[in-house]
Amino acid sequence: MRVSVVGAQGRMGSHVVAAVEAAEDMQLALQVDSSDDLTQVSPENTDVAVDFTVPDVTLDNVLTLIKQGVNVVVGTTGWNDDKLAQVREALAQAPRKDQAVFIAPNFAISAVLADYFAGIAAPYFESAEVIEAHHPNKLDAPSGTAVHTAHTIAQARRQADCAPMPDATVGNEPSRGDVVDGVHVHAVRLRGLNAHEEILLGNPGEQMIIRSDCFDRASFMPGVLLACRKVGEHPGLTVGLDQFLDL
């Protein structure tokens, strides 16, 4: 499998380059950076393009790669419903009917499982909140992982017809964090951290904590390689590595 890496000189991109080079079933095709022309990535040299850039440019990158007829795996965060809609529209007009784009809020297996477990547990608790903690160089807050987890919790609670979560706070106090789909999400940016998420679930007299800690960017690489191998089997837009796991 020929894999091109967009953002190859970045912190995550450089790890992806090394992981692809070490994989026996993959060949590193092109290493592309922000100043390079993305149209050089084409089906003639690339089966899958992996984008690890920044939120401001990742949408344009994906739209360009779709027009090029290349499958895309995206690890850049900062996605919202409007951006996802643009990707779906572009795929509907893509040169290939089996064109595929995969976007992952997180590639770490522990984080994907934490999100999945949160969805199972959420209907059984009155309260749920998410705390995410990352290094201070991270550009977005809250993280895409925490936003995805909040949506997972909210959807599970809606399907179970749960009552609103108790919260006597008056007004939209900044210290209460962002509210994503009715779930409070708190972001910490602290030197010495890498990527961490804590999901707090509470009932009268009890608490359950689901926590994922990723201490090194190497923890994301098995998920990236899995997505590269699986994306071509799932035409259209797929969001979340859980879609490629046997859960």
UniProtKB/TrEMBL annotation:
Q: Name one GO cellular component term.
A: cytosol
Q: What EC number(s) does the entry state? A: 1.17.1.8
Q: Which GO terms describe its molecular function?
A: 4-hydroxy-tetrahydrodipicolinate reductase; NAD binding; NADP binding; oxidoreductase activity, acting on CH or CH2 groups, NAD or NADP as acceptor
Pfam families xrefs: DapB_C, DapB_N
Q: Which reaction does it catalyse?
A: (S)-2,3,4,5-tetrahydrodipicolinate + NADP(+) + H2O = (2S,4S)-4-hydroxy-2,3,4,5-tetrahydrodipicolinate + NADPH + H(+); (S)-2,3,4,5-tetrahydrodipicolinate + NAD(+) + H2O = (2S,4S)-4-hydroxy-2,3,4,5-tetrahydrodipicolinate + NADH + H(+)
The active-site annotation reads: H134, K138
Q: What is the annotated localization of this protein?
A: Cytoplasm
| Physiological role | Catalyzes the conversion of 4-hydroxy-tetrahydrodipicolinate (HTPA) to tetrahydrodipicolinate.
Subunit annotation = Homotetramer.
Classification via PANTHER family: 4-HYDROXY-TETRAHYDRODIPICOLINATE REDUCTASE 1, CHLOROPLASTIC-RELATED (PTHR20836:SF0), DIHYDRODIPICOLINATE REDUCTASE (PTHR20836)
**Name of the protein in question:** 4-hydroxy-tetrahydrodipicolinate reductase
Q: Which gene encodes it?
A: dapB
